[in-house]
Predict the 3D structure of the following.
Amino acid sequence: MQIFIQQFATGISIGSVYALLAVGYALVFSVFNFSNFGFGPIMMLGTFAAFYAISLLHLPLIAAIILAMAVAGIVSVLMELMIYRPMRQKKALKLYLMIAALGMNTLIPNFAIQVFGGGVRAFPSEWAKSVIKAGGITVPRADILAAALSIIMLVLLWMFLYKTKIGLGIRASSFDSGTAELMGINVNLVAIVIFILSGASAGLAGCFYGMKYSVYPNMGTVAMKGFVASTVGGLGSLPGAVVSGLLLGFLETMISSYISTTYRDLVAYGLLVAVLIFMPNGLLGKGMHDKI
Amino acid sequence: MGYIEGILISACINIVCVCGLLLLTGFLGLFSMGHACFLCIGAYTSAILSINFKIPYLPALAAGGILAAVSSIIIGYPTLRGKLSSDCFAIATLGFSEAIRLILSNFNHPYVGGALGISGIPHKTGLLQAVLLATASIFFVYNYTHSQHGKVALAIRDHADASELIGVNIFREKIKNLMISAFFCGVGGGMMAHYYTYIVPNTFGSVMSTNLLTAVVLGGVSSVTGPVLATVLLTGVPEFLRFLSNWRLAIYGLVLIVMMRVRPEGLMGHKEFSLIPIVQLVKRNWKKSDVLSK
């Protein structure tokens, strides 16, 4: 039973990383109807910002995390302004957006390997490494921080989307961006806000992933699990993204502790295929398909 | 001579694979992030057949291709049905390719060899075979894309709903193209196995998928000769730019982004490379000089 609770805590913390990533994908998908496959590099750059802020500038952990979120948000907005927006204005096929995103997925990590070096580094925070023991269960502080901050981030996001005027604009644009623009909503501003939010959640997720495992230029590949979670939850659905992110983290931990660690990565893709066969719209998704 | 021959053979192998991918990405507009898995399936199948069952070269390649085509249904059936977003297909190909690599790395049967892969595959892909197979695939794909099948694929890419209205069975067309594309990649993987004489699962990672996609995108999305020329270019040029080899992947990424921003239809666009305009140009100039000399 103790082992189960221990694994449950691990599952929640890795699940919250997936949930944050999935929310980032879902935010972009809900408005623009395409998935930003360049999400991994955003997360990686944010994490490296936190890594260097702590190891070179000796900033406290919280400041480094905020810096990571800011850097990731800026990178994400730059991506939108320099690549996605001009392509959308040219009415490019969705395929072209995906190829450009794959290009970034190739360019940025390989660039980072040449600049930062390809080695695997430990996240330089002593505070996060120490563990808390309670009743025979050992939980690293990083796990608690990850779960707590993810929940705070998700609640703030929910408040922002449902209680503010810009949030209303975002929801209107995600319903129908053309009509929203006719109603006087500045869709370009909405786009920038969306990309900042999704970038910031990627940066936060990257910091937790770095604390839990390590920091390296190819860490962006984990963002694919976030995308799997967002597909399983229903593309573009925020509650679906959170639920399926947590579910994915939980399943992965349980399978690696009770069945086999080798096939841990198969869980995500097996879940994806199973959901696509039996519930093509995802767990909580509406009828999502390519718009005409 | 051996060096240049080696480059030519790898170019031919890549051409066979690119011929497959351009059907799917170029003509049908489906984005695959893990086409290397079909190469992997083809390479393993043909290698196992030719080492352990002494099957001749061409039947072994064909078996690899057919198994790759059959396995592509596993991805295609759940993700291409109905009106699912094409993002689902992209992520499923990536997941499938990772899953295949993971399973093969941990499968310690003597035929498969786990993470160490298979070595001692007979060296059967010579220059002649490679050129013949590449020519055959270009011939097939060129005729396929210039027939009704290719036009239907273009219609689905540009206007899925309109083509459905005029009676195109979108699901069947997509599965058909996916299977043909997987078949070519499987054959290409088999050729690769019989050329390098050893294969490990990690060869068939995302880097290989990106290389294939770069060739298709650089060449042109609705052209056959464009991607083929781009493949030759992308296989040959890195050999001269060895000093940049660390930056190669970064440059590939940059090429993809810049192409999509500047000229998304690719270098050749919707045109085919042909010698006829050059011949006409030469003829015209020759006539002109003829007139001048009189």
Remarks:
- Strands of chain A lie at 131-134, 137-140.
- The first helix of chain A runs from residue 2 to 32.
